[in-house]
Every structure is written in C-alpha cells, then in structure tokens.
C-alpha cells in the first residue's frame, strides 16, 4: 500500500532531488547570457578574444556533465529508497 501512495504523489524525479540544481540553473543562465556577447565581440566586432568564447563552450560542457551525473545520482537514490520501501531492508553492495 505504501508503494502505491508514494508512486501516486511522486511518480517522477523532481529537480529538488538533485543537489546542485541552483548551481546548474545559475550556470546555464550565465552561459546563455555570455555566449552571444562573446560571439558578437569575437566574430562581428573583432575585438574579443577567442579564448573567452571557448571558455563559455567549456563551461557549458561541464554543466552538461554535472547535469547528467546529478540526474543519474538522483535516479539511483530514488530507486534505492523505493527498494528499501518495498523490501523493508537495504540491499548489500556485494549482491
């Protein structure tokens, strides 16, 4: 009965299950604001440095990695809690 209640109220993972959701949100906002500015300075005006544009791309890639790792971690924690709720005991790491 508990599993039905839990699955009814929380069928999917929420953003609050991730630990770095505020960090990711601020990072994506920063990258989305800086990328067009750096592109404009480097390509159209010719006054910017390519390293700044490259850095925004690298930060975006790092944010994507953190997002995937946090999503998988939240899913594994959710599955672990669900398994404990169903069986009543945690599963050993060896089995």
Automatic annotation (TrEMBL):
Keyword Transmembrane included in the entry's annotation: yes
Domain of life: Eukaryota
Membrane topology: Multi-pass membrane protein
Entry keywords, A to Z: Endoplasmic reticulum, GPI-anchor biosynthesis, Membrane, Transmembrane, Transmembrane helix
Record has Cell membrane as a keyword: no
A single BP term in Gene Ontology: GPI anchor biosynthetic process
PANTHER family in the record: GPI TRANSAMIDASE COMPONENT PIG-U, PHOSPHATIDYLINOSITOL GLYCAN ANCHOR BIOSYNTHESIS CLASS U PROTEIN
Protein name: Uncharacterized protein
Organism: Gossypium lobatum
Higher taxonomy: Eukaryota, Viridiplantae, Streptophyta, Embryophyta, Tracheophyta
């Amino acid at each position: 009965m508990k599993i039905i209640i839990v699955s009814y109220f929380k069928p999917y993972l929420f953003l609050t299950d991730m630990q770095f959701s505020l960090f990711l949100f601020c990072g994506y906002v920063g990258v989305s604001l800086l990328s067009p500015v750096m592109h404009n300075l480097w390509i159209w005006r010719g006054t910017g440095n390519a390293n700044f544009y490259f850095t925004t791309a690298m930060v975006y890639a790092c944010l994507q990695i953190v997002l995937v790792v946090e999503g998988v971690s939240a899913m594994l924690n959710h599955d672990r809690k669900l398994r404990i709720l169903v069986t009543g005991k945690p599963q050993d790491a060896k089995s």
